[in-house]
Write a structure and sequence with these properties.
Elements (H helix, E strand, L loop, with lengths): L9 E3 H8 L5 H8 L7 E3 L5 E4 L8 H8 L22
Antiparallel strand pairs: 1-3, 2-3
Length: about 90
Amino acid sequence: MKPKSLHLEAYTISETAKRLGYKSTKTIYRLLKRDLLEDYVYLERSGRVYLVLEPQNLPSLGEKIRTNIQFKKSNVIKKGAKPLFFNNSV
């Protein structure tokens, strides 16, 4: 039987915030502290925390964050940024 290979695209918290269009990492750290992103965390042996943007059998990280934060006009998302979790097909 052949072993299955698992390919993960995991990013540091800072890189994840940039990829999702956030100005700061504060929102992500807050959700991590509340254990809401537990299924998206990949912990390296050295203790460094990585986040998986699109894990198998789960909604994307952007969708998970969007459902757990309150949307405001003055949200921390950068102006002009195209976050990965918005549907651009409309």
